Amino acid sequence: MFQIAVICLVITALLAYVNARFVRLPTTIGVMAVAMLLSLGLIGLKALGVATPHVYEQSLLRSIDFTDVLMEGMLSMLLFAGALHVDLSTLRAARWQIGLLAVVGTTVSTAVVGLALWVALPWVGLQLPLIHCLLFGALISPTDPIAVLAILRSAGAPQRLRMLISGESLFNDGVGVVLFALLLGMATSGTVPSTHEAALLLAHEAGGGLALGVLIGVVAFLLLRSIDNYQVEVLLTLATVLGGYELAQALHVSGPLAMVVAGLIVGNQGRALAMSDQTRRHVDLFWELLDEILNAVLFVLLGLEIVLVPFSGSVAGAALLALAVTLAARWVSVGLPAAVLPGWFGLPAEGWKVLTWGGLRGGISVALALALPAGHERDAILTMTYVVVIFSILVQGLTIKPLIARLPGSGAGGAAEGGAQEGGPVRPH
Questions:
Q1: Residue 412 — very low, low, confident or very high, per pLDDT cuts 50/70/90?
Q2: How many distinct helices (H) and strands (E) make up the chain?
């Protein structure tokens, strides 16, 4: 396992260098694009009769359990790092809007995607059971704005818009994972729980995750406040994340939600009341670097995974249909409410367009698709997921900046606003 980790880090470092030196795209987008080009190049060499590099890449990727690496390893640290620099008071001011987007929006998107695909997939020659269509809806609905938030800041996006996107993404991951687990249980057992049973499960997973996050965050805060030693305090934050996530898994509550809440507490009360200036600098630097490294590795793996995705002519039409349906569901569940109630959301004119287009899908969706039981349904869902994720990151991620530039309050004014955030805890991930 150590050897595989070393290989992944070396590949990531080399691709990050190529991107920084020659391609010069935003790091997460750039390394994934370069990784995809590398994989496609190896596929081309195989077609020319040079199969050894392609076979080696496939062997390497098959030795990596992407779902386990992300869901059991990276996710906890990425979510904690993302929450660490979100200002809790600003988040609290938008709590109802973020709650609507994260909970209701994700649920509505899951239903819209699932039902639409169930009806439309036979048009392109593919039939999936309703439960598998809903599973796809659950795994594709959570947004992953890791790649776009830096663009939002550099483009001068209004603070309110950045907060809504970052807040939604932090909480809808947990909601999406809970919905996916519920639907997967129904698919594997063949039984449909009652509304009461489903509500209890959701309450246990989500409510338990939130409660555990508060407990972990408070304990971490008390420990951090009792000492002044930045080496130990950095170690405590790392232990909070890794140990807390494992505890959530053991208790069968939402680990993602627990890590978000713990990160908010440590990032706000902890940074303000329990850390010296020296500790704060070291904690921030540690988590920023770890966040950047893990994101780079994650997006490199996403780019390389193309060699394991089962593409075929029959599934190609389904993937394009899934892309259209996913974008439409994003507009229905997020864009439409924001367009109808711009004042309540606190958005500038046309801000709903950025909120809709800026909802990127990422590694969590692919990891959940890979976790499905083997079969033709899994192959179809994996292909559809991969196409949506790649389009989301490459096309939406690279076109969001000009969309932001047309917003009132963007540009120089918005950039200044964003610059004011850089020194404090209000800087979103």
A1: very low
A2: 25, 0
Residue 239 near residue 286, CB atoms below 8 Å: no
Contact 357, 399 (CB under 8 A): yes
CA distances from 168 to 118, 126, 299 (A): 27, 33, 21
210-263 tens-digit pLDDT:
999 999 999 999 999 999 999 999 999 999 999 999 999 999 999 999 999 999
Q: Distance (Å, rounded) from C-alpha 247 to C-alpha 58?
A: 34
> Which of 18, 33, 76 lies closest to 259, judged by CA?
76
DSSP 3-state of 229: coil
CA 150 to chain centre: 14
Q: What is the CATH number of the domain that holds 295?
A: 1.20.1530.20
Would 58 be classed as within a structural domain? no
Cα 15 to Cα 27: distance, rounded to the nearest angstrom:
10
| Band of pLDDT at residue 148, cut at 50, 70 and 90 | low
Given a contact cutoff of 8 angstroms between Cβ atoms, the answer to whether 263 and 80 are in contact is yes
Domain span at residue 155 reads 66-421
What total of structural domains would you count in the chain? Answer: 1
Asked whether the beta carbons of 54 and 307 are under 8 A apart, the reply is: yes
- Answer whether residue 49 is part of any domain: no
Q: Concatenated DSSP letters for 11-44?
A: HHHHHHHHIIIII---HHHHHHHHHHHHHHHHHH
Torsional sign, CA 314, 317, 322, 323:
positive
Stretch among 105-114, 242-251, 260-269, 405-414 having the lowest mean pLDDT = 405-414
Q: Which of 66, 2, 57, 41 is nearest to 298 (CA)?
A: 66
Residue 61 lies in a domain: no
Give pLDDT tens digits for 1-50: 788 889 999 999 999 999 999 999 988 889 999 999 999 999 999 999 99
- Measuring CA to CA, which residue among 106, 114, 98, 77 is closest to residue 256? 77
DSSP secondary structure code for residue 253 in this structure: S
For residues 116 and 365, is the Cβ–Cβ distance under 8 A?
A: no
Residue 285 CB-density burial (10 A; 0-12 exposed, 13-18 middle, 19+ buried): exposed
pLDDT in the model for residue 178: 87
Range list of β-strands (E), 166-231? none
Residue 429 in any domain: the answer is: no
